[in-house]
Specification:
- By secondary structure, the chain is mainly α.
- The chain has one domain: I/LWEQ domain.
- It is built from 5 helices and no strands.
- Helix 1 packs across helix 2, helix 3 (64-87) packs antiparallel against helix 4 (94-118) and helix 4 (94-118) runs antiparallel to helix 5 (123-154).
- The radius of gyration is 17 Å and the shape is elongated.
């Protein structure tokens, strides 16, 4: 693997576009958009920060083979972030959104596992993952509760 291939590319998520997509999702499902926007934005920003932190910590690592695993895992996280954003674009399906959040969480778990295997003393990595996982769980619970409440009012 070439050293140039070992860089983690981060796609930029523009705040205005994200807010618009999240607002449409919330309105479509009769959910208060502000908590959805705030929770999703915090999660995605935390993930981006984690990816940048990992990139900074592994940049000078010498073993390209192991570094390739980190890069591959980081790309999967980036893909799941994009899939989550796609799942909240109209027409939306709350179950698909939930599945995408679970996939994002699993991809993050894999990234932390692979990165931890090559870095020593990476408690910050575990702490970051735990924080993001808590936020994802909170968003999932909020979306599930809100969509259940909407379903009950339709009956």
């Amino acid at each position: 693997m070439q050293r140039e291939d070992s860089t983690v590319e981060l796609q930029s998520i523009k705040g205005e576009e994200l807010t618009d997509v999240l607002e449409e999702f919330a309105m479509e499902h009769q959910i208060d958009p502000l908590p959805v926007i705030n929770k999703s934005t915090v999660i995605l920003k935390n993930i981006k920060n984690l990816l940048v932190e990992i990139k900074c910590n592994v940049e000078n690592y010498d073993c390209d083979e192991e570094l390739g695993g980190v890069v591959s895992s980081a790309r999967k996280v980036n893909l799941t972030m994009n899939q989550y954003l796609g799942s909240i674009s109209p027409p939306t399906d709350p179950e698909l959104c939930d599945a995408r959040l679970v996939a994002m969480s699993l991809a993050l778990d894999n990234l932390v596992l692979v990165t931890s295997s090559i870095l020593t003393g990476c408690q910050w990595l575990q702490d970051s993952l735990r924080d993001i996982d808590e936020k994802i769980t909170d968003l999932r619970e909020y979306l599930n509760q809100e969509t259940e409440d909407v379903e009950l009012t339709k009956v």
